[in-house]
Fold this protein.
Amino acid sequence: MQSELELLRAASAEIGKIVLGKERQIQQSLCCLLAGGHLLIEDLPGVGKTTLSQAFAAVTGLGYRRVQFTSDMLPSDILGVSIFDRNSNAFHFHPGPIFTQFLLVDEINRASPKTQSALLEAMAEGRVTTEGETRDLPRPFFVMATQNPWFQSGTFPLPESQLDRFLMRISLGYPDERSERQLLEGGDPREQLGQLRALLSEELILSLRERVKKVEVRASVLSYMQRLIAFSRQDAEIAFGLSTRAALALLQCAKAWALLEGRDYLLPDDVQAVLEPVAAHRLQAAADSNADGAELVTRMLSQVSVLI
């Protein structure tokens, strides 16, 4: 286990050579991958969303495809289509870019809801149904999507069902002064993407996902999680509380975070570390509240005691 953790830390450091000053977001991305979910990165254009995903793909060593979503894209552009072959006098299915291990969906909210919905079955079940036939996707299957804020022109809001398919949502924000100076002095970091080493592998990622499942969860920590979930459903500031699927997502991410911290047991700190990226995009403020998801998570953490 120690050597696997060392590889994870080395992978994080390798990505950090390209995405400067974003160690926590890199760890969150690794956490999402090990937890078996999908990651949404929401932020302003130009802060490094796509660069992070490209660096991440290079280091994981997984099969990689990138799709740029646009308003005129159709579901078949993602899933694939059957084309008639005159020589064999039959239709043959040509798989779309979704048939890969690591799929980068760039600017997911620039596509119409109809096209966004093409990802739902794939992200939830690891398979797609096209033209009446169900086809399995490669394992592991990981979607990392980027999106611009809703107030940017040319965007479509992601439906709640699509948002819920993302295990975690993170943002990068502007770099700190030191990192930005390093960027300005060192040139465009994207030029160094080809130098990144593939430190992880399909076998290692699948093995680590199995280790995540075996992380010990004590009754006291599970009770703390349940109190957080119950608070989200009862608080007057929150219109809709966290679902059972969200509770399972929180547990899985907390266990992955514990593994990244070098432990095989869960602490309340692990739950707190992943609560915002797991819960904020699933929470909606009440009609008379102006709070966003992050503020509602802060309220949950401040109001719910770790101990009873």
Summary: The first helix runs from residue 2 to 16.
